[in-house]
Design goal:
Layout (H helix, E strand, L loop, with lengths): L1 H25 L9 E5 L2 H11 L11 E4 L4 E5 L4 H10 L7 E10 L9 E10 L17 H13 L4 E9 L8 H10 L3 E3 L2 H10 L4 E9 L10 H29 L9
Helix pairs in contact: 2-7, 3-6, 4-7
């Protein structure tokens, strides 16, 4: 009984901190956050969203920036890496959103995952380490199936294809010339590599938040000329950012009305 009371007190304290820190990190008042959240680590995505929906951008001088449109969809630019991904997912308990979708870019590791292809990960391998602070390594990093199911339908509606598979999430940024690491990726048969997906899935599970990821293949780092450069990234953004955003916004706008109810169950 005593442990139950302590856990309850800790949860109240944690919620109070999150309610203070979410506006502190983003500059956006709690009542301005929508029920459905898009996460990105690119300012260009947030800027395009704000221009498209004529909404204010909060947090220009803060670590993270956010904007909410008239349909109740909020986009947050949380930065890069698993530590930032864990931070924003933890802070979102202050709002308890109905769903969170990560719009990330990833490196393709298969011939079938070419630049411009979308990936809906069925799982992510926890190579980043951050997620170990939440659950033991044996706990799989999984998305919420119903959210991904609805996103996949929107992709097909727009006439695009997508790939599914397992994504490897790492904290390492410059690994492309590490032959042992490349061999490890090959042995694990991953379809792509990124720096946030596993963390978002695990922390979402911990915080009981429905979550998913719609990744865009922006480079193919296992090929000699496939390592991402500034020029290549700009080309990818120009060609695919708008449809990446459009599919995601439509999915998160309509899922509350047309989609199946999303419920969180602990496994």
């Amino acid at each position: 009984m005593e442990n139950v009371i302590i856990d309850k007190i800790n949860m109240i304290d944690r919620l109070q901190i999150a309610k203070d820190w979410l506006p502190r990190y983003t500059g956006m008042p709690l009542d301005k956050f929508g029920d459905y959240i898009l996460l990105t680590n690119f300012r260009s995505y947030l800027k395009h969203f704000a221009e498209k929906f004529h909404c204010d951008v909060y947090g220009e001088e803060r670590p993270m920036q956010a904007a909410t449109n008239d349909q109740g969809v909020t986009i947050i630019n949380f930065g890069i890496g698993s530590a930032n991904a864990a931070t924003i997912m933890d802070l979102l308990v202050a709002r308890k959103p109905e769903g969170v979708l990560f719009l990330g870019k990833c490196g393709g590791l298969k011939k079938s995952s070419e630049i411009g292809h979308f990936i809906l990960p069925i799982a992510a391998i926890r190579g980043e380490g951050t997620s170990n602070e939440y659950f033991p390594p044996e706990v799989p990093a999984l998305p919420s199936f119903k959210l991904h199911k609805f996103v996949s339908e929107k992709i097909i509606t727009h006439g695009y294809e997508y790939r599914t598979g397992v994504v490897y999430t790492t904290n390492r940024r410059m690994w492309e010339h590490d032959q042992r690491f490349l061999q490890k990726l090959q042995e694990m048969t991953c379809i792509a590599i990124d720096m946030e997906t596993a963390t978002i899935f695990i922390v979402g599970h911990y915080d009981e938040i429905a979550r998913g990821a719609l990744l865009l293949v922006s480079d193919v780092p296992i090929t000699p000329d496939g390592i991402k450069t500034e020029k290549m990234d700009q080309i990818v953004t120009q060609k695919w950012m708008e449809i990446h955003l459009q599919i995601s916004v439509e999915a998160m706008t309509e899922i509350g009305v047309k989609g199946e109810p999303i419920k969180h169950f602990r496994y």
